[in-house]
Amino acid sequence: MLSPRRRVLVRDGRELPLIPRYFDLLIFLVEHRHDAVHRREIFDRVWSDVVVSDSALSQAIRTLRRTLGDDPRHPRFIRTVSRHGYRFVFEDVIEAADDDAWPLSAASTAPPEPAAADASADPFEPLLERVTHSPRSESEEEDRREAAELLHALGTSEALRRLGTRPGHAAARALLRDTRWDSPQAEDVPVLGAPAPIAVSRELIASRLHRAARAIATRWAGAAVGGGLAGITAGAVGGLLLVSAPGSAAPVAVIPVLAVIGGACGAIGGAGVGAGLSLAEAVARSQRPLALVAGAATGGTLVGSATQWLARQGLAALVGLRVNTGGGLEGLVIGLAAGLGYTVATAGIEGGLAAPRGRQRFRAAALIAALCGLGAFTLTAAGRPLVGGTIHEIARAARGSEITLTPLARLIGEPDFGPVSQQLIGTGEGAVFGFGLALGLMRRPSRTSHETLTDR
């Protein structure tokens, strides 16, 4: 019996535990049991706020089948529709009022008996052999994950004790830690204090990166595009204001020039911060906030430092200018601000790479923009110029340049490009960058109709 209101699945008077997303998937399939549901519809409904790898759906279906006692070769409940999706095929579905008269027995909260348990044999050993076996194909990898889930059902602590330090234990321990998020009966799987913590961490990171590689690449590219478009917009608007300012000698050609410079800087910054955020979110689950902030800060620092070195060396070699351009510190501060904003804005989203929709997405982008703007204000208040301030310094050092920002400062009320002008323009740069970065990073990729199913 299935109660959507109580969020309970009962069989023979016993409650069968499911993690929330898998329970939502079962409800969705039952509600649409007269149709073959496309996997794209499932992702849009069940994983509507996150981006997950294609194997996440296969794993969810496999878990539902095991919970229901279903056989994928002769399905009674869930059938795979080739190159399309899934269908709930159990015919004897009876709809009844989902009220308080719910027939639960006293043993309803007891954990279900694992299907692998057998009184005449040790149920742990065959499963331990499967999780310590090195996979050579995707199907073998999914078989290992299924074995790990069954070990959690039998007892996580006992499985870890029996695993010990046998060959392949580091990869198996990493797999048990990873699958505990998808097993409602799982206990904690510690890394620190356990055998070979470095090897386990390495295996865990490699596994999560492998499973989320496509999503990470898509988000990294989206962040770069979003940051680039934000930079183009800010540069073009700044160029337009500069050309229109009273007393300005800047030609109209300044507008596309500043747009290109802004787009390049935004794209590079977006790529660095976006890569750091995406990698951290894919790898870390138990320490997600700390990992996100650290990842964004690291990505921003790396690309900022690299850009700073290239800019200084390029200006010195090409035109003989030695200008103290910013880079590493600016990338660190903006990355920290973006990481903190993203962490707070997506705090309630779990199980994948956050991809909120509609108003939630714009609220998250607004929060990230506000914090990036605050970070930029702090930098400029400390005398650290951002893109606009750096362009002004280069223009002043190069005699005859027409891109000094003094006319903009006069619009603001300063006789020259002083502290107020730097802070106001810098804050705007940071806010626009943060908004573009967030929208690009959290963009939900479309799933094409030619996707194939990997479920067995």
In short:
The protein contains 15 helices and eight strands. The protein is mostly helical.
Would you give an account of this structure?
- With 456 residues, the protein is mainly α.
- The protein is 59% helix and 5% strand.
- It contains 15 helices and eight strands.
- Helix 10 (288-319) packs antiparallel against helix 11 (328-345) and helix 11 (328-345) runs antiparallel to helix 12 (358-381).
Can you tag this structure with a few keywords?
mainly alpha, 456 residues, 5% strand, 3-stranded antiparallel sheet, Arc Repressor Mutant, subunit A, single chain, 15 helices
Number-wise, the strands total 8
Q: In angstroms, what separates the terminal alpha carbons?
A: 26 Å
pLDDT under 50 segments (min length 5)? 106-110, 115-119, 449-456
Biggest sheet: strands side by side, in what order?
1-2-3
Report the biggest beta sheet as strand number plus sense, adding barrel if it closes: 3 strands, antiparallel
Structural class: mainly alpha
**Basic shape:** elongated
SS summary, helix count: 15
Overall tally of structural domains: 3
From the alpha carbons, calculate the radius of gyration and give it in angstroms.
Answer: 27 Å
Helix/strand order, N-terminal first: EEEHEHEHEEHHHHHHHHEHHHH
Strand content: under 5%
Mean of residue pLDDT? 87
Q: What is the helical fraction, as a range of percent? A: 55-70%
